[in-house]
């Protein structure tokens, strides 16, 4: 069944609502002989830290123009059946972390470095609506919405706050750069997805985010997202960008990354608890946060 | 006093039903994943009920500690204390997770 509001898209042959959160819908649509993905606002409240669909479309378009491997953005709709939406090319390939780390393609770490360098080269003034903020302050504000004491996360944030260099010029940042948001084929990296957390900030935050243990999907001995070593990735990234991100600095950002994902779990559990998005998956995340708490305490202990 | 099965025994019964009778016939990848998540949730509830009241720091103690740490006043024993506190949460939520740390 094709919903009537899809008429605005063109000649729609099929439309399937993909499973996901209630705040944003994702539809796999075949329209005018082309496979598209339609992202549309849902009934629920959208995460406070994410971009609007209009902004996300703008980011996608800018990244596409900059030569970043992203699904081709197609159209933005201010009103598609009463809600904001946009369409983009529907791409195929592997995004499931557990499957990718089982047999990662050769050269993936270097390809990740090259793609991230391209992303960070996007001039931030092309996207003036993107906010720049201090990451520790941003995370404390988000943790405060949870209303449950988490001294382990606080310890991580205070430890990081004392060590962040804060000397690098801010760049455009993807905001959720990790295995799981990258489409990977046997040839390597194909597409970069999930741009809704894009912002302006220290590029080292993106560089370190895929190192977080949760994003190694069980392949813990390969620190870069369960797919490879950090050194070739970091070396290639610095070479291409002219940055000087060090391994010691990544240790600090990795602690921050664990705090960030712990807070992410806690806030998503609140979506279930306060009735915005009732879901057993969101509910359980509230109890998963302790894993990142332990990891960050262990990293802090090792570093001291 | 309630009649048997008690709460733990009921959780066990539901866990066995979902694991032994539902899971084997769920083919849809997404639904299968959510069924496993639901089983995990039941496991957490089971372990929490079985363990009874925990004797770790109270909510107000944790709140005070969180406030102190944010203000930059980190007690000298904060790290071992918090490791023990988080480990006790993990023994309920995901006991095998701690194996990774030896």
Q: Could you estimate the helical fraction of the residues of chain A in percent? A: 40-55%
Structural category of chain B is: mainly alpha
Order of helices and strands of chain A: EEEHEEHHHHEEEEHHHH
Number of strand elements of chain A: 9
Shape of chain B: elongated
Number of H- or I-type helical stretches of chain A: 9
CATH architecture of the largest domain in chain A: Alpha-Beta Complex
What would your notes on this structure say?
- The complex is a heterodimer of chains A (304) and B (102).
- With 304 residues, chain A is α+β, with helices and mostly antiparallel strands.
- Helices cover 41% and strands 17% of the residues of chain A.
- In chain A, strands 1-2-3-5-4 form a 5-stranded antiparallel beta sheet, with helices on one face. In chain A, strands 6-9 form a two-stranded antiparallel ribbon.
- Chain B has 2 domains: 1-52; 56-102, no CATH class.
- Chain B is elongated, with a radius of gyration of 19 Å.
- In chain B, 8% of the residues are buried.
- The mean pLDDT of chain B is 95.
Summarize the SSE layout with pairings.
The complex is a heterodimer of chains A (304) and B (102).
Chain A lengths: L11 E7 L5 E8 L2 E8 L11 H13 L7 E8 L2 E7 L7 H6 L5 H13 L14 H10 L6 H13 L7 E3 L8 E4 L2 E5 L6 E3 L1 H6 L21 H12 L5 H27 L6 H24 L1
Antiparallel strand pairs in A: 1-2, 2-3, 3-5, 4-5, 6-9, 7-8
Helix pairs in contact in A: 3-7, 4-8, 5-8, 5-9, 8-9
Chain B lengths: L6 H16 L6 H23 L7 H12 L7 H16 L9
Briefly, what is this?
By secondary structure, chain A is an alpha+beta fold. Chain A has 9 helices and 9 strands. In chain A, 44% of the residues are buried.
List its salient traits.
heterodimer, A: 304 residues, alpha+beta, Phosphorylase Kinase, domain 1, Aminoglycoside 3'-phosphotransferase, Chain: A, domain 2, 2 domains, 5-stranded antiparallel β-sheet, two-stranded antiparallel sheet, 9 helices, globular, B: 102 residues, mainly alpha, 0% strand
């Amino acid at each position: 069944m094709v919903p009537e509001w899809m008429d605005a898209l063109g000649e729609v042959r099929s439309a399937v609502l993909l499973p996901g959160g209630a705040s944003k819908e994702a539809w796999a649509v075949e329209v005018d002989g082309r496979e598209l993905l339609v992202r549309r606002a849902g009934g629920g409240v959208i995460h406070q830290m994410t971009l609007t669909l209009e902004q996300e479309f703008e980011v996608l378009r800018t990244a596409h123009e900059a030569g970043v491997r992203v699904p081709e953005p197609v159209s933005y709709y201010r009103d598609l059946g009463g809600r904001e939406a946009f369409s983009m090319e529907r791409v195929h390939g592997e995004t499931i972390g557990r499957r990718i780390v089982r047999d990662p393609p050769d050269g993936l770490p270097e390809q990740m470095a090259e793609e991230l360098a391209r992303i960070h080269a996007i001039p931030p003034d092309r996207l003036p609506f993107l906010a720049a903020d201090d990451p520790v302050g941003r995370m404390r504000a988000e943790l405060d919405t949870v209303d449950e004491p988490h001294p382990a996360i606080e310890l991580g944030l205070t430890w990081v706050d004392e060590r962040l260099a804060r000397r690098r010029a801010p760049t455009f940042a993807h905001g959720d750069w990790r295995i799981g948001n990258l489409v990977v084929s046997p040839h390597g990296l194909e597409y970069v997805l999930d741009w809704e957390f894009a912002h302006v900030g220290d590029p080292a935050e993106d560089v370190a985010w895929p190192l977080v243990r949760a994003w190694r999907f069980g392949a813990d001995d390969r620190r870069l997202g369960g797919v490879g070593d950090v050194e070739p990735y970091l070396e290639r990234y610095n070479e291409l960008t002219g940055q000087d991100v060090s391994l010691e600095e990544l240790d600090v950002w990795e602690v921050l990354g664990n705090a960030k994902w712990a807070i992410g779990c806690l806030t998503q559990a609140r979506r279930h608890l306060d009735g915005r998005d009732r879901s057993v998956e969101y509910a359980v995340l509230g109890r998963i946060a302790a894993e990142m708490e332990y990891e960050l305490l262990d990293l802090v202990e090792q570093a001291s | 006093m309630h009649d048997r099965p008690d709460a733990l025994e009921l959780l066990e019964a539901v866990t066995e039903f979902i694991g032994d009778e539902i899971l084997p016939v769920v083919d849809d990848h997404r639904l299968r994943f959510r069924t496993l998540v639901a089983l995990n949730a039941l496991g957490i509830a089971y372990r929490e009920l079985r363990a009874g009241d925990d004797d770790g720091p109270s909510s107000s103690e944790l709140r005070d500690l969180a406030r102190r740490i944010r203000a930059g006043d980190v007690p000298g024993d904060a790290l071992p204390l918090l490791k023990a506190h988080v480990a006790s949460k993990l023994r309920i939520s995901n006991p095998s997770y701690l194996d990774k740390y030896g």
